[in-house]
Every structure is written in C-alpha cells, then in structure tokens.
Description:
The chain has helices spanning 2-16, 42-54, 62-71, 89-101, 112-116, 125-133, 157-179, 196-204, 238-245; strands at residues 22-27, 29-30, 39-40, 58-59, 79-85, 107-110, 137-140, 186-188, 208-210, 229-230, 248-249, 254-256, 261-262, 269-274, 283-286, 289-290, 292-298, 301-307, 315-326, 329-339. By secondary structure, it is α/β, with parallel strands linked by helices.
Amino acid sequence: MQMIRLLGLLMLLSAAFPAQAAVILLYHHVSDSTPASTSVTPAQFREHLQRLDDEGFEVVRLDELVQRVRDGADPREKLASITFDDAYESIIDNGIPMLEERGWQATVFVATEPVQQRRRPMMSIDQVRALHERGHLVVNHSHTHPHLVRRQDGESRRAWRNRISQDVQRGQALLEEWIGESLPKYFAYPYGEHDPAVRELLGSLGYKGFAQRSGALDSNVDWLDVPRIPVNRQFADWDGLGDKVRALPMPVSRVTPDSSITEEDRPSFELVLPQNWQRRGLNCFARGQAAKTEWTSADGADRVRVTPARDLAPGRSLVNCTASAGEGRFYWYSHLWMRKEADGRWYPEQ
C-alpha cells in the first residue's frame, strides 16, 4: 500500500512539474535598417528582454545552459540563452549594451572569414575579442559560411567531407587564435541547414550542433540538433513568441525520414510519440495552414504522419507541431524541410 501511495505521489508531482526544459533564442541583426527576415529592431529586442525578466526567466550564457541541462536542472526553473549568428556589428552596437544593463551575457556564433576580411556590416576581430573580454561567449559558425549540405559540381563524398571538415576546423582555430584560449566546440549550422551526413561529420569532430527551429531542450535533446527559436521582425510579437519561449520539448523518440532534403511538393514526416499522445490534440501548421495528421498505434507508441495542406515552395520551410501542456504552455516540435527545385537544383539563397 505504501508503494502504491508513493507511485501516486510521483505521478502527481510529474503532472505538476513537467520535464525540465530550457530555450535558446536566435537573433541576427539588432537594427532598424537591416533586412526584416534576419533582424529585430532595438525596440523589439529591448521588449523581449523585459518580457523574459517579467516572466521569471534566468538568462544565462549558452555554456552554462548546456551544462545545467546535462546535469538535470530543477523542473521549475525557467532557463534561457540569447544567441546571435554571424557577428554583425549591430549586435555589439545595439544588442550587447541592453544585455549588459541587466548583467546578462550573450553567445555569438562567429563566421570567421567575413570578420577576418571586415566585410561590412560585420564586426572586426578586435570587436570579437572585446566581446570575449566582456564576458560573452564567442563560438564557431564556420569559416566561409557555406551551405554544408551541398556538394560542389563533381565533388565526391570524401572531397566534400574534407572541405567541410577543414572549414569547420578553420573557424575554430581562428577564433581560438583571436581569443588566445580554447573555446567550447559549439557549432551553429549556417542557414540552419544540416542532414545526417553533416551531423555525423560534426559529431566525429567533437562538436555540439545548434539548429534554427523552434523548440525547447531537456537532457534527452539530440546534441547535434539542438533547437533554437529564430526571431525576426515577422515573429517578434510577444503574443506568439512568448508561446515558443514558454514551450516544453515534445517527447519525440524518432523522426523519419532522417534527412530533411526533399524534391516533393508536399513531403511528409513521421513522429514517434508515447502511447496515448493522439488524445492530446496535436496541431501542426505549415505555411500558415493546418497540416494533415494521420495517426497509428503500435508497440506501445503513437505515430503521427504530418503532411502540408499546400505545396511547399523551393527553399527552407518549417512545420510546427504543438500540443497543450497545461497552464498556458505548449509542447513544441519544429521540423525543417529543405525543398529543392523540381529539376533537382538547389534553391538560390535569398
């Protein structure tokens, strides 16, 4: 009887305190004059920081967040990290001062070649070094910022692997040379693009890989596909962004196919979830419309196949799936598709 009561108590505690989760926000520019698709305005960024504070989030540097997630933080904690990609000058001019006003530290994923060549509007090497000296974390975003999933004309798999490996390691070596010390092996995928071959290569080099798709992370996260919430002017309103920031990780045990590269108009993917998840009212959306969901159950698990209701345009598309977690929070899973042109050519970068 005592064991039954204990199990009941554990079930109640589990329901009251969902699995520990943390979120990572991803920004590029903090400016009024840069492209809306990769920017937030300084006013929007300031509001986001205030909202995080108001909602009781502890904002920590990425290396601290990773360590605390790995160690299993208290379920009631709200952890967040602010990250920036590419090392644009507007980050140090506009974003960093707002963080430092609150005593918060950022993480900047640096593409080293544009910084080395001082291609405007990139930071200089001295500015990257100054970020480190001020307590912020600078980590690897590659050397040349390539599309990692693409092979060059006539390039063999071995040649592709050597080229990408050299690019990743060149970025790390330059950063450590500029900073004067070793840095964590954290890598943000340029354009958010990766596939099994890229992830395997990155893992063989000892890196953790950070993506561009919404979701939270807990100790079960795939450390080669860590979600980060992309934020830009289109998705800067807190009514929508707040739902992503308060999200819990959806307990997905497997995703098929394992590659997100497709030439299909309406590609499908399947999620394997715990038993009875079909009852949770899962909703998925692609291109602003509800996606089709088809459920099956077998071997103590629920499987849902998700198909867009309309054709995906060539390029990168995110399919977002959510389910209520109670208390105004949602479980969240975001799936990236990289759809090639109908003739198999890669889409141009916009």
